[in-house]
Design goal:
Nuclear Transport Factor 2, Chain: A
Length: about 140
């Protein structure tokens, strides 16, 4: 994957924001729809390529339960932050690069690489996803 410098304003707690990315990777590795959904706000939006437009944590949880039992069974997700932009002390945008590794694969095929935008809000000490959207790099 190409490398891009992270553009982080002074004072941004990039590690705390990126921790949500790591939680997503860990939840996916365990096929844990509950842990996956827990990184989203109650009223979160998740948009994926195709006809996936979810508008709540409960919808995200239900979708992932079906996906882990079906097309995402045995897959893993990888990703890393490309940039973080703080809009306020409690709102930030995280941009990542990554994708879904097919079952049994060790490397991400180029045609499966995605870029994702995460709009995040700080709740207590946690950063939760308010809106997530990804799209393929190559079509």
């Amino acid at each position: 994957m190409p490398t891009t410098k992270t553009k982080t304003p002074a004072g941004t707690d990039e590690a705390a924001l990126a921790k949500t990315n790591q939680k997503m990777i860990a939840a996916w590795a365990e096929n844990d729809a509950d842990a996956f959904a827990d990184i989203f706000t109650e009223d979160a939006t998740l948009i994926l390529p195709g006809d996936v437009h979810l508008t709540s944590r409960d919808e995200i949880r239900a979708f992932m339960k079906r996906a882990y039992a079906g097309p995402y069974a045995g897959t893993k997700v990888i990703g890393r932050p490309l940039s973080v932009r703080r809009l306020s002390s409690s709102v930030a945008i995280l941009t990542t690069v990554g994708g879904v590794l097919p079952a049994g694969a060790d490397e991400l095929p180029a045609e499966r690489e995605i870029r994702a935008t995460w709009v995040m809000r700080k709740q207590g000490s946690e950063w939760l996803i308010v809106a997530y959207h990804n799209s393929p790099v190559k079509v």
